[in-house]
């Protein structure tokens, strides 16, 4: 292989791996609490929950390291040190992701935050590939053109890490500048909770199958019409059902339409545990000792074989202590509703209690709904202490799953405004708003949906300007030092 070919390969490898690391670091940096929660999940799975207090710092530093390595790889700065650090990181992450793939203690690795979710085996395969690329870059680093001086390369590394850390701190206090989660502004929670397969969906698919029967549609056209994006169906699986439908002498279109939507359900294997003479054994539905009374059934486990489709929002609920499940009632409300979200009130900041109570009074005066959502038990000591700390609580408090609350807003507490089931806006505890005029007459009553592309562009411009600024300062200091030396 010629040197020119090696140069092209190492440059392409550098740019590719650099862009991936920049994306990975950036997606973590804009959501530092998300990274914290994921690291805490890892620690809990490894029985290291005692170290969860350092998860926040580790999350920020990990994002900074990935962003730093990405920028250096992209620009070819400190290539020897950068490639070695990358290899070391991959040498740690690859066995870890293999263990995760084998034992499945967490559903996804969180490699790219919530921006891109991979399965555990996809993550392991990705790390194998990246490890090989990192080794190649290290071995062929001499073929990569050197664009910067040694001092400039260190400036690039330090400035990149510092930028990522500053970005994480900003997003921690002010909410992520890009929201990758299913509860972002503009989301209709009701629509996001829907599972394909409603009566209307079945009627539509049955209609397509009927057209196939009378010759109005070809098999390929029917499959294309059935596999609409909103149905989340796999063409290969739909084709099997359609083929079976075509071969059936008695064609019940609605029955086959239901079979098609049943494809979205997960597949499980039922494991039965029976005990005899103090020994417990596992059985399946095919071989369990149903006719042997000496065996005693002790437990049943449904082991997932294949994960089915899950709507973006599937665990949103509001359990009122007196009225029970009020989820549908709140989401169907055509007026405005404030949701004060605190995944654990005993961990919530209470420095904005006056502002929060003022918002509740404002909601009461204007006929808006107001609920506090928490996973803390409503009759616990922690809840009683919270109410005292808040100076007395008059607003209703409902219970919701802790993970759901952490997903809704990255602040404890955080404020969410919804209307007719749609997320209008969110505020962190630091930026708890003050309301005066009715929301119907205020911009705050309209969906506040930021332009993600614009945010990424502005972030890039800010980083480049910061980098150029550091270069400029370094140049100025160098000139000053040179002049001082000449005077001596």
Helical content (DSSP H or I, runs of 4+): 40-55%
**Tally of extended strands?**
10
* Low-confidence runs of at least 5 consecutive residues: none
- N→C terminal distance: 54 Å
Strand order within the widest beta sheet: 8-7-6-9-10
- Give the helices and strands as they follow along the chain: HHHHHHHHHHHEEEEEHEHEHEHEEH
Categorize the overall geometry: globular
What is the domain tally?
A: 4
Radius of gyration: 28 Å
Biggest sheet features: 5 strands, mixed
Number of alpha- plus pi-helical segments: 16
Please state roughly what percent of the residues sit in beta strands, choosing from under 5%, 5-15%, 15-25%, 25-35%, 35-45% or over 45%: 5-15%
Overall pLDDT metric: 90
Helix/strand class: alpha+beta
Q: State the assembly state of the protein chains.
A: single chain
Give an overview of the whole structure.
The chain has 488 residues and is α+β, with helices and mostly antiparallel strands. The chain folds into four domains: 3-174, no CATH class; 199-262, no CATH class; 267-306, no CATH class; 319-445, Glutaredoxin, CATH 3.40.30.10. The chain contains 16 helices and ten strands. It has helices spanning 3-29, 32-45, 55-75, 79-103, 120-139, 150-174, 189-192, 199-213, 219-226, 235-247, 253-262, 327-331, 353-366, 381-389, 402-408, 452-487; strands at 267-276, 279-283, 296-306, 319-320, 324-325, 336-342, 369-374, 397-399, 414-419, 422-427. The strands form three sheets. The chain has a five-stranded mixed β-sheet, with helices on both faces. Strands 2-1-3 form a three-stranded antiparallel β-sheet, with no helix packed on it. Strands 4-5 form a two-stranded antiparallel sheet. Strand 6 (336-342), helix 13 and strand 7 form a beta-alpha-beta unit. The longest helix is centred in the C-terminal third of the chain and has 36 residues, at 452-487. The two termini are 54 Å apart. The model has no long low-confidence stretch (mean pLDDT 90).
């Amino acid at each position: 292989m010629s040197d020119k070919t090696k140069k092209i390969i190492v440059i392409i490898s550098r740019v590719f791996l650099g862009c991936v690391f920049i994306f990975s670091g950036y997606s973590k940096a804009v959501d530092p609490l998300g990274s914290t929660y994921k690291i805490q999940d890892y620690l809990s799975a490894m029985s290291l929950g005692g170290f969860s207090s350092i998860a926040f710092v580790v999350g920020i530093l990990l994002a900074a390291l990935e962003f730093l390595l990405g920028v250096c790889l992209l620009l070819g700065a400190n290539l020897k040190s950068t490639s070695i650090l990358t290899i070391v990181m991959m040498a740690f992450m690859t066995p870890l992701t293999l263990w995760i793939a084998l034992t499945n203690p967490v559903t996804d690795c969180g490699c790219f935050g919530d921006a891109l979710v991979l399965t555990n085996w996809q993550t392991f395969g990705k790390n194998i590939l990246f490890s090989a690329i990192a080794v190649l870059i290290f071995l062929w680093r001499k073929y990569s053109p050197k664009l910067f001086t040694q001092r400039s390369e260190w400036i690039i590394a330090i400035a990149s890490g510092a930028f990522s850390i500053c970005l994480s701190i900003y997003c921690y206090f002010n909410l992520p500048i890009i929201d990758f989660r299913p509860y972002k502004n503009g989301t209709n929670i009701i629509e996001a909770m829907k599972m394909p397969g409603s009566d209307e969906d079945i009627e539509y698919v049955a209609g397509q199958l009927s057209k196939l029967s009378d010759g109005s549609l070809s098999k390929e056209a029917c499959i294309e019409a059935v596999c609409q994006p909103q149905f989340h169906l796999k063409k290969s699986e739909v084709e099997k059902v359609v083929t079976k439908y075509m071969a059936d002498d008695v064609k019940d279109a609605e029955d086959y339409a239901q079979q098609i939507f049943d494809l979205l359900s997960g597949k499980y294997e039922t494991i039965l545990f029976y005990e005899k003479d103090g020994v417990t054994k596992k059985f399946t539905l095919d071989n369990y000792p149903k006719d042997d009374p000496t065996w005693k059934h002790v437990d049943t486990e449904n082991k997932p074989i294949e994960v089915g489709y899950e709507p973006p929002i599937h665990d949103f609920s509001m359990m009122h202590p007196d009225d029970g499940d009020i989820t549908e009632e709140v989401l169907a409300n055509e007026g405005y509703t404030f949701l004060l979200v605190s995944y654990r009130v005993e961990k919530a900041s209470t420095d904005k209690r006056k502002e929060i109570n003022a918002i509740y009074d404002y909601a009461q005066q204007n006929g808006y709904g107001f609920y506090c959502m928490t996973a803390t038990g409503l009759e616990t000591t922690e809840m009683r202490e919270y109410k005292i700390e808040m100076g007395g609580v008059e607003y209703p408090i409902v219970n919701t799953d802790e993970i759901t609350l952490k997903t809704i807003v990255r602040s404890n507490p955080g404020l969410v405004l919804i209307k007719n089931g749609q997320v209008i806006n969110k505020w962190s505890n630091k930026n708890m708003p003050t309301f005066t005029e009715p929301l119907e007459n205020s911009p705050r009553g309209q969906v506040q949906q930021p332009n993600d592309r614009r945010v990424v562009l502005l972030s890039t411009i800010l980083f480049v300007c910061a980098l150029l600024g550091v270069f400029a300062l370094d140049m100025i200091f160098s000139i000053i030092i040179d002049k001082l030396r000449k005077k001596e």
